[in-house]
C-alpha cells in the first residue's frame, strides 16, 4: 500500500512579507517618479546637442533680414572672442538663405575693415567695449552669442530659453549703423517665448 507523507510548507513570517512588499512598492514608485526625469534629461541632452545648429540658423536668419548701404557680393561674418557655438557657424554652407556667406576668424583689430557681421563670443569686458567703440556708427552688424554679455553697442543679443532661441534688438545701435533691418526681424524679437 502506497504511503503518502504530508509536508507542511512553511510560509514566510508576516514581518518579512511586509518588508518585501514595502521594498517592491518603493522600487515601483521610484521608477514611476524618475521616468519623467530621465526622459527630461534625455530631451535636454538632445536639445543641447541641437543648440549650435539652431544658433547658426538664427544668426543667418538675422543676416537675411539686413541690408547694407552698399550691396555685398558676399557677407563676411567674423567670429571674435571665444564663441561657444562657433563650430556650427563655420560649418554652414557658403550660401545661406540666398546670400553668399564667408565666415572668418580675424584679429579683433581688423574687424572694422574685414567684417560685415561681428559675432561676439566670450570676450573680456574691456576688449568688448573697445571693439564696439570701433564699429559703432559703421555698417557692421553686431550679434552677441547666447550667454555672453550684451553691452550697449550690440545690435542683436541672442538668448536661450529651454524651448527656443530668441533675440533682443538695440534699435539705437541699428539706427546709428546705417543698416536697414526688415521690420519682420523686429517683430520676431518682440515675441515672447512660450512658457516652459
Characterization of this structure:
- The protein has 196 residues and is α/β, with parallel strands linked by helices.
- The chain is 44% helix and 18% strand.
- It has helices at 14-64, 86-90, 111-114, 125-135, 171-177, 183-190, and strands at 66-67, 75-80, 95-96, 99-104, 117-120, 141-144, 156-160, 165-169, 180-181.
- The strands form two sheets. The protein has a seven-stranded mixed beta sheet with strand order 3-4-2-5-6-7-8, with helices on both faces.
- Strand 7 (156-160) and strand 8 form a beta hairpin.
- It is globular, with a radius of gyration of 29 Å.
- It starts with 13 loop residues before the first helix and ends in a 6-residue tail after the last helix.
Amino acid at each position: 500500500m502506497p504511503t503518502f507523507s504530508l509536508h507542511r510548507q512553511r510560509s514566510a513570517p508576516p514581518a518579512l512579507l511586509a518588508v518585501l512588499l514595502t521594498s517592491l512598492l518603493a522600487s515601483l514608485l521610484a521608477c514611476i517618479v524618475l521616468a519623467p526625469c530621465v526622459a527630461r534629461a534625455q530631451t535636454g541632452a538632445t536639445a543641447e546637442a541641437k543648440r549650435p545648429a539652431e544658433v547658426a540658423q538664427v544668426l543667418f536668419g538675422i543676416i537675411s533680414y539686413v541690408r547694407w548701404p552698399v550691396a555685398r557680393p558676399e557677407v563676411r561674418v567674423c567670429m571674435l572672442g571665444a564663441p561657444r557655438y562657433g563650430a556650427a557657424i563655420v560649418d554652414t554652407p557658403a550660401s545661406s538663405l540666398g546670400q553668399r556667406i564667408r565666415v572668418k576668424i580675424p584679429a579683433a583689430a581688423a574687424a572694422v575693415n574685414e567684417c560685415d557681421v561681428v559675432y561676439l563670443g566670450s570676450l573680456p569686458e574691456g576688449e568688448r567695449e573697445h571693439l564696439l567703440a570701433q564699429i559703432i556708427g559703421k555698417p557692421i552688424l553686431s550679434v552677441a552669442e547666447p550667454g555672453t554679455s550684451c553691452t550697449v553697442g550690440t545690435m542683436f543679443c541672442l538668448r536661450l530659453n529651454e524651448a527656443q532661441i530668441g533675440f533682443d534688438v538695440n534699435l539705437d545701435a541699428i539706427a546709428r549703423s546705417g543698416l536697414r533691418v526688415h521690420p519682420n526681424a523686429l517683430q520676431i524679437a518682440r515675441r515672447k517665448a512660450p512658457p516652459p
